[in-house]
Amino acid sequence: MIKVLFDECHGELSCSQLQEDNTPKEAWTILCGQVKQLFGDDAIFFQKESLTHQVLEDFQLLILAAPKSALSAEEVKTIVNFVKQGNSLLIASDRESLVINKDDSINAVLETLGMRFEELLNHPPEKVFNLLPHYISSEVSQLNIKEPVYVKTLPNSPYPIDIIATLPYTGKTLIATVEVPGNNQSGRVVVLGNYLILSNQYINTGNNQKLASNILCWLAHQNSLDCRVSRIPTEVNYRQSAKFSIVIANPKSQRLENITCVLESDKNALIQEPYKTVRFLPGYGQTQVQWNVIPQQIGQQTLRLTIDIPELENSETSKISSLFFAPVAQFQCLPDAEFDLVFLNPQGKAQEIVETGVTFEVQVIARWKNHAKAVPLRMQLECPLTHIKVEQISTERWYLTVLDPGDWLITLHINDINQKITRLVHAYPSQKNQIEKIQRDVVTPLAAEINYQVSQIRQEFDNEVIRQIPFQLFTPEEQVNRLYNYSTQEQLLEALQAARSETKRFSPLVEKLLQSIAPTYSPIHGCCIPYDPKLAAHLIKEHPFFEEQLAYNFQGIEGYEHYGQTWLEGNIAALFLHEKYGHGFFYNHTKVGQQLAILYRHGLLRKVDHEGLKSPYLQLFLQDEYKSAIETLHHSSIILNEGFATWMELTILRRLKGSVSQTVYRRKNFLFNDEYLTLLQQNSEYFKHFEPFYPSRYQEGYEYLEEIQSIFGTECGSKCVVQAVIKAAEVDFGIIEHGGRVEFLLSPGKIEEDLLSEHNDNNVTSPTERLKSIWKLLRKHVNEIRAEQQRLQCHRHCLHPECPVNLVIKRYLEW
């Protein structure tokens, strides 16, 4: 008599009964019913306490299903010994048991058998069709599953492992069996990567119930025959012979006679001697049965196998029935040929790149081998019809016209052999058309959403000055011509020309381009964003180290799926916030920013053509006299300016809709990996006096502002950040415009002395050092400011003259 023990003392996800509150769990009551039907009403027991040798000695089959609590080391040893003594084990798991509860003790049992459960990292399938011949898979062609794990076979497994079912797409093992040699009979183990297959919820779907019955009979040693190791080539040429074989084994000591095997084909393949008879099979013996199969049709085909087992006399323990496998094997019948797609231009010449709007021809080329006779095949060309116009000329020729630029996938389906050939159609418009499309389809919709979000912080972000700042994508050449003087233009345009034709690695060229051609805010031209993913794709072939920088500087890398439309939209949103609302606000609405903008417009912060200035000689004089002071002023504002732009970008990105909001994480990593200040510090008088905390120009200022926002909360924090930036940059260095010229009301020595002197907090003039002082002050007086904010209801209106932040700064720092 077979006695079966269901373990229920380790918080198994499945159980035999309802929970205490009578709510249904993933019960196995149907499976329990099968156990009783097969082995009798007295065959089933449930264990509520630890598994010990004394508990297991009266049982022949243990069922251990997805435990949530760990097995003890002693229990693991007991279970392993139980199997080695010739008993059987059904051990099952799933993602919740293995991953969520992180219990690896079940693998301690499996590892002694040469296996372990592993998390499936791919998308979990819901159906399984891939079953290999075995007693367990007889009459089983489909299983319904949910959130499985997979069974990994370990190297140097101590026992032969039979794979019964594999998961679609990944081919990873779902069900496996192993037999452990024992004194009288082998111990049998079934390893199941999804316990839900046998639960009440799923057992009556697909062929799950038949699988359950087969597993129970096999574990109880009630099968009269074992089947395994079926072989046939996965591809067979049309009308050529292939061998199919399968091993059948006798699991009993009693001799079997007159076993009949019948092989059938679903596509009328010619099978030589489809009926095979095994005259006798000795006890524990095995034999290989083999057929010659000659396919008569092209395409995917399956074979079915029926094995009739004669009834054994005086056998009470074996379940006598035929075994049926549909399919027992699958193969593809191919014509003895190779197929290819070629693109021909109107002149009949092969081409790889096409133009939008120009019709070209697509042909199928078949190369028949070994004097094979050409077989008519049904072919179909599949194209994205919204982007490509298709006209069929014959069964093997088509005219195509690409309507939109881009990379479009076309697929040739050779229906008779279930084979497909895919090719990319590369259609390139002018760079100008691409940029116009991005401005229309990406920039314009984002501009409206971003403007709404930033205006919720402060109304200054919605004023006419900020709204009128241009945000424009340019080709690299256009950006160079717009931002640089003639001599620099010449050098950079030559560098761009060299880069487009470069075929060997030369890092200085790429470094020069990345330093000079990048998203830029100009107080004259607004936001200038270079766009050329094609150039980035060309450069990355020899310079993979620069992948990320090339992608961010040129708005993507053509042909790289990672830098698709979603990536581009996120990057445009980030640059819109960083350049227009970060730097745009700083240069237009802060005192230091306005003075730096004057210097920029008059060519004192950049290289310009002096001939184009109203007073070139005055400009040259000022540039020479004030060069060091201007550089120090510029450097003293970098951490504040870039930190504020970074804060604007990362703060508002989180508030945008859809996948764009996810851009914040990759942008933060990119910005904080910047090492600009490390290089600048080597020659900067300012940064020699005030050593930056991070190599990145973006991180330090951002962290001060982020903490200010954090301490004042969601309602007032953002407003306080903007006010802190305004106050940090509220320093007058006497730089004005008068009569179209720039004038300095302070001497260069005075400007430089004020910026570099080690002042106390009250007298500091460096915008970055002022920000640090404000940050420390606000942290110290946070409760005082919060109380005043609540009294004034600052979350409703930002009252600048009465601003509690301003008042604290004035009281304690006298600014």
Task: Describe what you observe in this structure.
InterPro entries: Class_I_gatase-like. This protein has an eight-stranded mixed β-sheet with strand order 4-1-5-6-14-13-12-9, with helices on both faces. It has a five-stranded mixed β-sheet with strand order 16-23-22-18-20, with no helix packed on it. About 1% of the residues have low confidence. 39% of the residues are buried. It folds into four domains: 216 residues, Rossmann fold, CATH 3.40.50.880; 109 residues, Immunoglobulin-like, CATH 2.60.40; 91 residues, Sandwich (Immunoglobulin-like), CATH 2.60.40.1080; 288 residues, no CATH class. It has 815 residues and is of the alpha+beta class. The longest helix has 38 residues. Helix 9 runs antiparallel to helix 10 and helix 12 packs antiparallel against helix 13. The chain is built from 24 helices and 36 strands.
What is the residue-averaged pLDDT?
A: 88
State the separation between the terminal residues, measured CA to CA: 94 Å
Fraction of helical residues = 25-40%
Number of helices: 24
Q: What would you call the shape? A: flat
Which strand order spans the largest sheet, edge to edge or round the barrel?
4-1-5-6-14-13-12-9
For the record, the count of structural domains works out to 4
Strand-pairing-aware structural class: alpha+beta
Strand count, sense and closure of the main sheet? 8 strands, mixed
Low-confidence stretches: 608-615
Taken as a percent bin, the fraction of beta residues is 15-25%
Work out the number of β strands.
36
In angstroms, what is the radius of gyration? 38 Å
InterPro entries: Class_I_gatase-like (IPR029062)
